[in-house]
């Protein structure tokens, strides 16, 4: 049994000996050129002239590429064709690429790029949300609004009411390996690209478009990334396209790697967001009506902002059942980096809004915030309810008809179907039975009693809820109540240092909200010697995907992990892949790999059954052997028998998530196959004079379903929590009044270090099989744990609240300055 | 100009512009890409190597300043067939996710244990005269120059404690 085990990382030996190759480590052919971009120094303006003579004359410079030299499209956008590789006529943010230099070395290219002079007539720049709102500069025609019940009436009738505004900062990905790409020109004008990308198909698509060639002429390979976190879903396009175009123009291999400062200045980050809230509640803190207004700062180009903002709306309820709710979302355009995907994809921001609301309700009523949270939870589903409400894939008696994708509107080449940014058209044809405002029917109608009344604000029944049980377990493990009492006593005796504690839950929806992206393919080869090669569409960025898929294959074939090799992700082996994103890497690719393995096992079993006169169903693959009746062959022998009998030992596998359908315009449907859950208790201490702070202890219980690999899952949970805590505390992005990012290096942008992790850090897996029929009943674990970090912000708020009678209204990131200000607000 | 470096026990003559950092010399001129470049500013630790027994950020020093120096990179600590105890401990404890910080973490931790053995105090040491215990706080403080964005810190610290406990480096 290879799954459900803490097997080491498939590349462990390579990592610890420095032999694991990243893009910048790949040996390049002689004559390889290196690229650097010349960047706009201005946030908004008209380009009058570029003087690049000094660039061309710089030592080592070979060529300078300007927009008119581009062979075909000048676009690297994953969505709206609004992101030129090189600016034409206008610039829209400080750091926008104006031209590219090709030089003999990386250093020579960077030095040359600095010599470019641009003459730009400045225009007024919209740098923050206030400016964008005042100018009504936005994406989409107006706000998106999701509603359920009648929020206005419920608010008017509620016995208690509070309202407020929360500001939430963005976040730099700071993948430790910066963006990088390498283009190698092949025969026939074809191009091989090595890219540090979560989305090889997107790179292939954009490179093909830029070269004016069909996708079959471009092959993209991704072995691994040194971290992605969403920052390599679309932000690698510019480097890959620039390298490909440069390789076409120069006939030489071309490579580009952003220096860290350039990386931070050029690429998009997590969306910062303002959430206005107005909530009505009863004496126990139960919410009667709630209205949210989201404003996201999307930056200059659309990128993936629409689905990010949608996901923020989809997580505005987090774990709480809301009868009357209205969520309004504005996607504002500014002259700053184009904000992009980041672990959680808007979910964390949306979730933070309602956690702030819970915190403030508790403060208003003088109740324990945990009690208020519990009073609002969805009801738990019955334990061990099997099978899934969504039913087994393929075996579903009456699967909901997948919405026939409407034929692409407009010119086919302009559609970027494999990108999450493609969310322009409704997924579900309007005019179906959703018009009556009712819930979409559950896939098999097997709605549990009473659950019919509990739907999300987007009318999806919540059928797998478990946070009542999980949080009770966590509160006990962490001694939440005992510690809260001790903290209160400690605070009474300590005027300067104050402690705080908070328990916050996470309910995170799993699936791409652009329904057609929920598909994956795999290609599995078995060689004559019994070794197995595995190819699938997912990319490895440290989340352990390759290890998990190798485990799945090893288990199905009944062989050891050492017999399996997972190759680099390659668009020539598995085409039309979705980004490794939305936490869905293992769910999708694991299933596709399993399907291919099933096909191969089926062929071998059929042959051996015939040979040995037993039913094919009795042929088992286990312990390195294939057992047919009372005959045992080693796996390699069985493979050789199959080969000699001329049985194909190569198979593809395919998977598409069943039972999901979503209308993002109406805000109705089932966008998610299931939810992943978790909760964290954080305890912190603050210095009320300086705002300095520390996390003292963290306890987590997290739901990974029936975990495929507990060691990897716990690593994701710990890492996600720390990254989430960093987002909400030390990671502050600052732009000056010219729109220049002033925090563009780790010297000024503080990510968590070893000493920032909580000294007491207890993580427990909630070991319960996923009711949904996922791979081995596991659950996705990439993104959800990031939101466990919200407990840190709420614990800091709790500590500040101990300083006085008023609500501290602590915004994020909770830097020492903000904590100090919150203490002052609490005192009044 | 020519610089002679003793890298992983082998004399290598480097011909490079005198402005070449030790990191670039290793990665580009000598083909040793195990040392990583995370920031090129001395702020992340991905490029940590051991020079004459001391850990340094190789992006912050010029190669030509190390004529005659003994340099150990992650490639010189061990091989897949013969891992160093620290490398083995990182495998045992899964001390990585994406792996990009790993070579720097391993070089840094290897030299750090030597510093502790020699009684060099850190900010977290209660006693400045040496003989400190390798507590979690000591490890965390001493390793705080090696960032891990995946935040594999709990496993990194476990690995280091394990390697230290075995009394070998
Ligand atoms: S690359 Fe040397 S410290 Fe970051
Ligand atoms: S393992 Fe990814 S940066 Fe440390």
Automatic annotation (TrEMBL), chain A:
Positions with biased composition (Low complexity): 387-397
Start and end residues of each stretch annotated as Disordered: 384-459
Key words of the record: 2Fe-2S, Iron, Iron-sulfur, Metal-binding, Molybdenum, Oxidoreductase
Annotated InterPro entries: Ald_Oxase/Xan_DH_a/b, Ald_Oxase/Xan_DH_a/b_sf, Ald_Oxase/xanthine_DH-like, AldOxase/xan_DH_MoCoBD1, AldOxase/xan_DH_MoCoBD2, AldOxase/xan_DH_Mopterin-bd_sf
Keyword Iron recorded: yes
Positions with biased composition (Pro residues): 398-407
Ranges of residues in domain Aldehyde oxidase/xanthine dehydrogenase a/b hammerhead: 17-124
MF-aspect GO terms: 2 iron, 2 sulfur cluster binding; iron ion binding; xanthine dehydrogenase activity
Bias type Basic and acidic residues, positions: 436-450
Entry EC number(s): 1.17.1.4
Cofactor(s) for this UniProt protein: Mo-molybdopterin; [2Fe-2S] cluster; FAD; Mo-molybdopterin cytosine dinucleotide
Family (UniProt): Belongs to the xanthine dehydrogenase family.
Protein name per the record: Xanthine oxidase
UniProtKB/TrEMBL annotation, chain B:
GO terms under cellular component: periplasmic space
Keywords linked to the UniProt accession: 2Fe-2S, Iron, Iron-sulfur, Metal-binding, Oxidoreductase
Keyword Iron: yes
Pfam families reported in the protein's UniProt record: Fer2 (PF00111), Fer2_2 (PF01799)
InterPro entries, per database record: 2Fe-2S-bd, 2Fe-2S-bd_dom_sf, 2Fe-2S_ferredoxin-like_sf, 2Fe-2S_ferredoxin-type, 2Fe2S_fd_BS, Aldehyde_Oxdr_Iron-Sulfur, Beta-grasp_dom_sf
Domain 2Fe-2S ferredoxin-type as annotated: residue spans: 1-77
Gene Ontology molecular function, alphabetical: 2 iron, 2 sulfur cluster binding; metal ion binding; oxidoreductase activity, acting on the aldehyde or oxo group of donors
PANTHER family referenced in this protein's UniProt entry, alphabetically: ALDEHYDE OXIDOREDUCTASE IRON-SULFUR-BINDING SUBUNIT PAOA, OXIDOREDUCTASE, IRON-SULPHUR BINDING SUBUNIT-RELATED-RELATED
Stated name of the protein: Oxidoreductase with iron-sulfur subunit
Organism: Profundibacterium mesophilum KAUST100406-0324
Lineage summary: Bacteria, Pseudomonadati, Pseudomonadota, Alphaproteobacteria, Rhodobacterales
